[in-house]
Design brief:
It is a single chain. By secondary structure, this protein is mainly beta. It contains one helix and eleven strands; from the N terminus they run βββββββββββα. The strands form three sheets. Strands 2, 3, 6, 7, 8, 9 and 10 form a seven-stranded antiparallel beta sheet that branches. β6 and β7 (75-79) form a beta hairpin. It is globular and about 45 Å long. 27% of the residues are buried.
Length: 136
């Protein structure tokens, strides 16, 4: 057994996020296991870029209210205790609403090259504003 009492909080690369985002790694993908898990905290208005995962992604919302959107315009409003599963290869984004913080545990099963994430362009302010105004 390994008892880890704390992990450092880091700012993830700014070229992958808009706004202030903070990350605590829970597990990094190392052979033979390929699980990557992190606690990610988004301040109001903060969000990921568009991205996809080779083997999909599971998000467990731990705090606040957030949004998860897909390229087809589908946006769901999420809150603590809810789970969102993004299928393999689906381009999506996630982050806080414009007025509330949101935190989630992000989990992916990596591939031979790492965590299997393909990072794309930022979600535009217009795309984000539409998501905020149309989500339930």
């Amino acid at each position: 057994m390994e008892h880890i009492t704390s992990t450092p909080t880091a700012k993830p690369p700014s070229e992958r996020f808009t706004g202030d985002v903070y990350l605590n790694m829970i597990e990094a993908p190392t052979e033979p296991a390929r699980l990557a898990a992190a606690l990610v905290r988004f301040t109001p208005g903060a969000r990921t870029n568009w991205h996809s995962h080779a083997n999909g992604q599971t998000l467990y919302i731990t705090d606040g209210i957030g949004l998860v959107g897909t390229r087809d315009g589908n946006v769901v409003r999420v809150s603590a205790g809810q789970i969102v599963k993004c299928p393999a290869g689906e381009e999506h984004w996630h982050g806080a609403t414009d007025t509330t913080l949101m935190a989630h545990i992000a989990m992916v099963v990596g591939d031979a090259g790492g965590d299997g994430t393909t990072w794309l362009e930022p979600v535009t302010d217009e795309q984000y504003a539409t998501a905020v105004s149309t989500s339930n």
